[in-house]
Amino acid sequence: MIDDRKNKRPTVIVIDDDRSVRDALKGLFESVGLSAETHGSVREFIAADDPEKAGCIVLDIRLPGQSGLEFQEELARSSIRRSIVLISAHVDVPMAVRAMKAGAIDVLSKPVREQDLLEAVNRAIAEDAARREESTARAATTSRYQTLTPRERQIMTLVIAGKLNKQIAAELQLAEPTVKLHRGHMMQKMKATSVAHLVRIADRL
Q1: CATH: 1.25.40.20, 3.90.1150.10, 3.40.50.410, 1.10.10.10. Which one for 147-204?
Q2: pLDDT tens per residue across span 125-148
Q3: Whose CB among 13, 56, 94, 181 lies 3.0–4.6 Å from 83's, allowing a Cys bridge?
Q4: pLDDT of the residue at 5
């Protein structure tokens, strides 16, 4: 139980090749109650990464080997979603535009103002939490959908399309009471309280 709670506690991961910067940022985040860990390169981070760990990444744009910007763009192209704040001693407009297009929360110039960085990190952590919550809800919805019978799935599709029981019965060549029965089971399995709620649930699928 204790380990599980620790894993859910947001962690700020600092990736910077300058040890003094890593140490300073780790101290800053821990001073405001955040958990923090540091890595000197993308390669070092990947070797130790746990994708299930909640939080965000503070990433230096210019790193030895794969640059922070290249790594961020690589993540954006993959199915791996991480909330990233980029920092660099040399930020130009084209670089900042590239980073924001790839989904960066913010791009900050070194030396970074502590308040600006903390605000960006808080936004990144909030985005990560929202994304994880949505992912959990989507997985639960998918799991419930898989319990539906083929007939219940047919009826769900037609209900979402706005069809009435009488119309569904005619389309599927069923008796209306049979449609009502299947519809009731489907709504119960999907934990839908109304058609509007069912539509919102279906959007997750």
Answers
A1: 1.10.10.10
A2: 999 999 989 888 899 999 999 999
A3: 56
A4: 42
pLDDT score of 1 more than 60:
no
CA dihedral 32, 34, 37, 41 (to 10 degrees): -80
- What digits encode the pLDDT tens for the residues 50-70? 888 899 999 999 888 888 889
Report the alpha-carbon distance of residue 71 to residue 82 in Å, rounded.
Answer: 11
Instruction: Fill in the DSSP letter of residue 113.
Output: P
Q: What are phi and psi of 60, to 5 degrees?
A: -75, 135
Q: Write down the pTM of the prediction.
A: 0.74
**Which of the following CATH numbers is that of domain 2-134: 3.40.50.620, 1.10.10.10, 3.40.50.2300, 3.40.50.1000?**
3.40.50.2300
* 179 against 75, higher pLDDT: 179
Q: List 14's β-bridge partners, or say none.
A: 38, 58
What are the CA-CA distances from residue 20 to residues 24, 81, 120 (Å)? 6, 28, 21
Contacts of 197 (CB under 8 A, 6+ apart): none
- Helix 176-189 vs helix 165-172: crossing angle, to nearest 10: 110
Q: What residue ranges do the domains of the chain occupy?
A: 2-134, 147-204
**205 pLDDT more than 90:** no
